[in-house]
Design brief:
By secondary structure, the chain is α+β, with helices and mostly antiparallel strands. Helices cover 34% and strands 17% of the residues. It contains eleven helices and 14 strands. The protein has an eight-stranded mixed sheet, with helices on both faces. Strands 8-9-11-10 form a four-stranded antiparallel sheet. Helix 8 (212-226) packs antiparallel against helix 9. The chain is globular, with a radius of gyration of 20 Å. The protein starts with 9 loop residues before the first helix and ends with a strand. Bound molecules: the ligand O=P(O)(O)OC[C@H]1O[C@H](O[C@H]2O[C@H](CO)[C@@H](O)[C@H](O)[C@H]2O)[C@H](O)[C@@H](O)[C@@H]1O. The ligand O=P(O)(O)OC[C@H]1O[C@H](O[C@H]2O[C@H](CO)[C@@H](O)[C@H](O)[C@H]2O)[C@H](O)[C@@H](O)[C@@H]1O binds at residues 122-125, 130-132, 134, 137, 160-162, 235, 237, 242, 244, 246, 275-278, 280, 316, 318. Residues 122-125, 130-132, 134, 137, 160-162, 235, 237, 242, 244, 246, 275-278, 280, 316, 318 line the site of the ligand O=P(O)(O)OC[C@H]1O[C@H](O[C@H]2O[C@H](CO)[C@@H](O)[C@H](O)[C@H]2O)[C@H](O)[C@@H](O)[C@@H]1O.
Length: 352
């Protein structure tokens, strides 16, 4: 990876500000599902790690786990029918711990002064809106322009659960780093994407290659087993799989999850996490978005360095693996997007 100089000029200020304010916020009516979060190295006077258990893997797949998956998936993707007052309460307490990045923008920049900013971005729900069909989660032109600006000034990586080909096809920017399949397929910027693909030259790291045949096998089995469930979709993300529940009637969630459980019982080397109306299946290796972030920082020469200011924007539970990483831990979370201004909470002090 190549280092870029970070002199925080007004132009750079505005391009970070732009990024923070343009990350996707599909509707402003619900809480975590619709809020993009930014993790950085600012040191809060409080510990906002109130989501400690959010991303724990479901270790083994006995029958009682199915309900837990469903509950957890619901919690990750609240439905639009929550009653107004509990919704407001939820919003308020969440916002208390995640103040607005835009409102605290000057402090964020102050903390970044003299340091190399490196930008990490989740794809779905952050750069693209959440839509019913995962193949149609397109990014806007405006977002692409903002990303281009960001990448001109800082090393910039997309860290996603999607497979590399698909996300590159959505983003269409060769100058970025891509950590696809939850960080299990890392690739650097390249001038000629097609040639780089053919020679595999731009690939930096693929820690789960030996799982490819198993993932492929499970993909085919899941396709077969879930085809009777209306609306279910299995997505092959190369080193991991996604079983989509978004278009499935909620009454069929438990039977669908049970089908997934029965398949996974035969594959102890695979584990499962929940996302936004999705169950994600991955190899049991100790590798996640957080490890990918560490890998990329190390490739940039910033291992254990105080000279780097990573910014990570993501909206999903798997992004919390990345929020936890970094030399001093990612102990600051902010909400992004201008549309949430009315929910700002700014009384917290920040030490730079
Ligand atoms: O790490 P990410 O980039 O956030 O990827 C996580 C999953 O994102 C996609 O699913 C989500 O977005 C879809 C399109 O908007 C939506 O239909 C689905 O309900 C969401 O869960 C992607 O399709 C999955 O494979 C990723 O695992």
């Amino acid at each position: 990876m190549t280092k870029q100089n970070n002199v925080v000029t007004p132009e750079i200020n505005s391009c970070i500000n732009n990024l923070i304010s343009t990350v996707v916020l599909p509707t402003a009516t619900t809480v975590p599902e619709s809020m993009a979060m930014l993790g950085g190295f600012l040191d809060f006077s409080h510990n906002n790690n109130n989501n400690n258990n959010n991303n724990k893997f479901i270790k083994r797949f006995d029958g009682s786990k199915v309900n837990a998956w469903i509950d957890s998936m619901r919690a990750a993707s609240p439905t639009r029918t929550v009653n107004k007052s509990s919704e407001n309460q939820e919003k308020c307490s969440w916002i208390l711990y995640h103040p607005s990045a835009l409102k605290l923008f000057d402090q964020i920049l102050y903390s970044a002064k003299g340091k190399q900013i490196v930008v990490f971005l989740d794809y779905d729900g952050t750069l693209s809106p959440i839509v019913a069909d995962p193949d149609k989660a397109f990014m806007t032109r405006k977002m692409r322009g903002t990303l281009k600006d960001i990448a001109r000034n800082f090393p910039t990586a997309i860290v996603t659960g999607r497979c590399r080909d698909k996300v590159i096809n959505f983003v269409k920017l060769a100058e970025l780093y891509y950590a696809a399949s939850h960080g299990m397929d890392i690739m650097g910027p390249t001038k000629n994407q097609i040639a780089a693909e053919k020679t595999n030259k731009a690939v930096l790291f693929q820690p789960a290659s030996q799982f490819l045949p198993m993932i492929d096998e499970v993909y085919k089995i899941l396709l077969e087993k879930t085809k009777s469930v209306s609306g279910a979709k299995v997505e092959n993300n190369k080193f991991c799989l996604s079983v989509h529940f978004r278009c499935v009637d909620e009454k069929s969630w438990a039977p669908l999850a049970e089908k997934v459980r029965l398949v996974l019982n035969e594959y102890p080397k695979l584990k499962l996490t929940q996302g936004r109306k999705v169950l994600e299946i991955r190899p049991t290796i100790k590798w996640d978005k957080g490890k990918a972030l560490e890998f990329l920082l190390e490739s940039l020469g910033y291992e254990n360095s105080d000279d780097v200011f990573p910014i990570y924007i993501g909206d999903d539970r798997t992004d919390e693996d990345a929020f936890k990483k970094g030399p001093r831990g990612w102990n600051s979370c902010f909400q992004c997007s201008k549309r949430n201004k009315r929910f700002l909470h700014t009384s917290r002090s920040i030490r730079g």
